[in-house]
Amino acid sequence: MSFELAIDWPTFLTTYWQKKPVIIRQAFPDFQDPITPDELAGLAMENEVDSRLVSQTAAGWQVAHGPFSDFDQLTETHWSLLVQAVNHWHPAAAELMQPFRALSDWRMDDLMISFSVPEGGVGPHLDQYDVFIIQGAGRRRWRVGNNDVIAQHSPHPDLLQVAPFDAIIDEILEPGDLVYIPPGFPHEGYSLENSLNYSVGFRAPSGKELLSGFADYVLAQELGSRRYQDPALALRDSASEVLADEAEQLRGMMTELLRSAEFTPWLGEFLSQSRHELDIAPPQPAYQEDEVRQALDEGTPLYRVGGLKVLQLATQTFINGERFSDADPAFLRLLAQDLTIEAEALQPLIDDTTTLTQLTGLINAGYWHFAGEEEEEEET
Ligand code: SIN
Ligand code: CO
Q1: Ligand 1 atom 1 nearest Cα
Q2: Which residues form the domain of 24?
Q3: Pocket of ligand 1, candidates 55, 109, 112: which has the most ligand atoms within 8 Å of its Cβ, to mutate?
Q4: The overall pTM is greater than 0.85
Q5: Is residue 280 part of a domain?
Q6: Which one of 22, 185, 350, 370 counts the least CB within 10 Å of its CB?
Q7: Which residues contact 33 (CB under 8 A, 6 or more apart)?
Q8: 179 lines ligand 1 (CB under 6 A)
């Protein structure tokens, strides 16, 4: 299933992106849910999948974390089941992210899917990330407030909410409608009936995360061992003083590291890491190179595992947190561009034995797999 998103990206970026929320009616005309509530519940029973159940009871807000063993105790109203990174586990649902690749792969985070019964929702809250929330089956009322500074509180240790807010958007979404919410705009969704919502979330690292990520890299690579030197040490008025020049030199030692040639490889590794577990299942037995060649000769396409990030930065390519260097640029572009790689596109490239070896390595790592592989696995 492929999804056509009716959006004028240039206008959207100029008017709304990171500026204000907007509802786009029938952004996905004739929207068909790629997943059923039962399938979503099944995913929430898996160990590797991150899920939670948020409910509102007479005793207040409750949060339970998956994996769930059953859903027997649920009431008819006032709860919502939320499953993170469904794009990693459910290829049909992952297709929903494809139209948003227009905004760049590194900014994209994951696809969170919620199933809510009437009156179900997580309450009024803020997110740190841009999010596109698509309405699937059912109808849900969405209220969005302005991004005034607004205090957060925890009605439950695992829930961060905001106080009631005045709405600048207050509308009922129907299947195929979409609401875009920039970071910091309070919002709340309440279901009118059983309802599926798809949240395509975007990541935006903080300075803190960047600095600590870079510091980890500096330690791992044993960089930055040059020490402070002061052959021109000057006398000062007071022993307690740190001179401005000295402080500047120390700051310079830090910025020198950030400006060094190491910044790009670190950034590529950092940004290409997935924040959620990937469904990596290396093939057993491993593929031989001639088997890869044969599958491509038969026209079998290759699929990238859901959520795997392949990024290109300067002249370098990064796959899942690792630099993938010394490869044919045409091969790298193919890996980076399309989530499905057609056999015909790869065939001319694997005449080069290095490329065939590298491709076989990526398949054996479980990063790409041939179409139809899962079905075969299920049969055996
Ligand atoms: C939901 O689908 O209920 C939550 C989406 C969100 O508010 O971020
Ligand atoms: Co939210």
Answers
A1: 114
A2: 9-202
A3: 112
A4: yes
A5: no
A6: 22
A7: 136, 137, 175, 196
A8: no
Pair 160, 35 in one domain = yes
Q: How many domains does the chain have?
A: 3
Q: What is the CATH number of the domain that holds 213?
A: 3.40.366.30
Pairwise CA distance, residues 235 & 23, whole Å: 65
**Torsional sign, CA 376, 346, 272, 185:** negative
Does residue 197 sit in the same domain as residue 257? no
Is 193 a member of any domain? yes
Distance of CA 91 from the midpoint of ligand 2 (Å): 23
Q: pLDDT truncated to tens, each residue of the chain (380 aa)?
A: 789 999 999 999 999 999 999 999 999 999 999 999 999 999 999 999 999 999 999 999 999 999 999 998 888 999 999 999 999 999 999 999 999 999 999 999 999 999 999 999 999 999 999 999 999 999 999 999 999 888 899 999 989 999 999 999 999 999 999 999 999 999 999 999 999 999 999 999 999 999 999 999 999 999 999 999 999 998 999 999 999 999 999 999 999 999 999 999 999 999 999 999 999 999 999 999 999 999 999 999 999 999 999 999 998 999 999 999 889 999 999 999 999 999 999 999 999 999 999 999 999 999 999 987 654 444 43
Copy the structure tokens of residue 102.
Answer: 């227009």
Q: Give the length of the chain.
A: 380
Q: Both tokens of residue 279?
A: 């469904």
Residues with Cβ within 8 Å of 255's Cβ and at least 6 positions away in sequence, in order, are none
- Structure tokens, 210: 């960047």
DSSP letters for 104-132: -TTTEEEEEEEEE-TT----SB--SS-EE
Burial class (CB in 10 A: 0-12, 13-18, 19+), 305: buried
Can you tell me whether residue 154 is helix, strand or coil? Answer: strand
